[in-house]
Design brief:
CATH superfamily of one domain: Aldolase class I
CATH architecture of one domain: Alpha-Beta Barrel
Structural class: alpha/beta
Distance between the termini: 14 Å
Number of strands: 8
Shape: globular
Largest sheet: 8 strands, parallel, barrel
Length: about 240
């Protein structure tokens, strides 16, 4: 099934000049800008405020994982930043996910703002079966673990999950059409694989059922980021 999917640019850069340039160049063609640990640890809330002032959506990718109360309180804080998507590790368990969900909605209601989408990280795209089995001591294949965590996140009434595009079709089949699926590990035909193991092209990921395509280096490291986005859009629509 071909569906509409948003492109999310992972701002894995470390200067305000780079951020300003990418927003200026791409805010009319990119739906969401993702702030990860690198950028947030350097600039804090200031970087979120800067991007929101440009009138675009922000995915704050901090992947909270801690005891329920700590994660809930962190979610309260970032909800008030006005971001559009936040994430937590689904492996933190049902109690942690429910506490985060309640905190997000309570804080949003209290302050009269729209709650951000809360999504659960399943298995990082840098992890394959060997790492899962031998290093993490989790038996079975990656698909099995991803689906288990996706179903757990849905039971906790999260809005969706982060998963590699290789598991998207399975998640969509089990969790339904309304479940938000955000997919890193997207590599256009013109780019390199680099450090991610479970990857897919944008077109195939959209066909598999993703809602949000997270793409970083193929865009921001390009000599012409705007042209790179145009090529990705063309690849999706072909």
């Amino acid at each position: 099934m071909k569906r509409e999917a948003k492109i999310c640019l992972a701002l894995d850069v470390d200067s305000l000049e780079d951020v300003s340039f990418l927003i200026r160049e791409l805010k009319n063609s990119i739906s969401i800008f993702k702030v990860g640990l690198q950028l947030y640890c350097k600039f804090g809330n200031k970087i979120v405020e800067k991007i929101k002032k440009a009138g675009v959506e922000v995915f704050l990718d901090l992947k909270f994982l801690d005891i329920p109360n700590t994660v809930a309180n962190a979610c309260r804080v970032v909800t008030n930043l006005g971001v559009d998507i936040i994430n937590i590790h689904a492996i933190g368990g049902m109690e942690m996910m429910k506490a985060a969900r309640d905190a997000v909605h309570e804080e949003a209601n209290k302050n009269g703002i729209r709650p951000p989408k809360l999504i659960g990280v399943t298995v990082l795209t840098s992890i394959d079966k060997m790492i899962l089995n031998k290093e993490m001591r989790i038996s079975g294949g990656v698909n099995k673990q991803v689906l288990h965590l996706a179903q757990l996140a849905q039971e906790a009434t999260l809005d969706g999950v982060v998963a590699s595009p290789l598991e998207t079709k399975l998640i969509r089949k089990v969790c339904g059409e309304e479940f938000l699926i955000v997919t890193p590990g997207i590599r256009p035909a013109f780019s390199l694989k680099e450090d991610q193991k479970r990857i897919m092209t944008p077109s195939r990921a959209v066909m598999a059922g993703t809602n949000v395509l997270v793409i970083g280096r193929p865009i921001y490291a390009s000599p012409n980021p705007r042209q790179a986005v145009e090529e990705i859009v063309k690849e999706i629509s072909s």
